[in-house]
Amino acid sequence: MNIIEILASNLVVGSIQVTAGDALGFLTGLLCVWLTAKASIWNFAWGMVNSLILGLVFLDQRLFADSALQVVFIALSIQGWWQWKVRGNPQASRFRATTWHEQAILLAVASIMAWLMWLILVELRGSAPPLDALITALSLCAQWQLNRRQVSSWYWWIAVDLISVPIYWSRGLYLIACLYVVFLALCVYGLRNWQQTRRTQSPMAIA
């Protein structure tokens, strides 16, 4: 039995039948987002574990863009770890604002990425090409902002969660869909926590 078959094995949680991958994705994802909301650097380590698990689950469900996204998340998590801590940059511990100009550029980039990935997914016959591509594009932009400790990243994650819940539920990934509902609540908490923390920084740090 390979690892994908193990993750696809069924478990019963209450009255709902889920897979081992759903359960592990739920637990590791919950821990990752909680640590991110608390601005702990360990969110990156658990994020990599979560991405590995979900990447295999999505691959089994033919959600190709979501599966490939997890590989990119692992790479971005390594970069984020470096940006937050390893390089020792004093700016790394400070929260940043995002200008409207930056947001406009990110929206344009996300739109182009989503369109290109949609064309690719149609050829690959993925399960949900338009939404799958949109989730991928928004998530990449959100993670890029998170690595830079930009408070605006939480708004992007909230958008990702709102789109993800119905698509994962429709694919029978009930526990992962519920996880994204919890993610949504944690994102609201994380947004408020980062905003409050940023307000306590010195004017030089905020700049």
UniProtKB/TrEMBL annotation:
GO terms for molecular function: nicotinamide riboside transmembrane transporter activity. One of its GO terms (cellular component) is plasma membrane. It is a multi-pass membrane protein. Keywords: Cell membrane, Membrane, Transmembrane, Transmembrane helix, Transport. It is found in: Cell membrane. Signal peptide: none annotated. The keyword Cell membrane applies. The chain crosses the membrane at residues 12-34, 41-59, 65-84, 104-121, 172-191. Belongs to the nicotinamide ribonucleoside (NR) uptake permease (TC 4.B.1) family. Required for nicotinamide riboside transport across the inner membrane. This is Nicotinamide riboside transporter PnuC. It comes from Limnohabitans planktonicus II-D5.
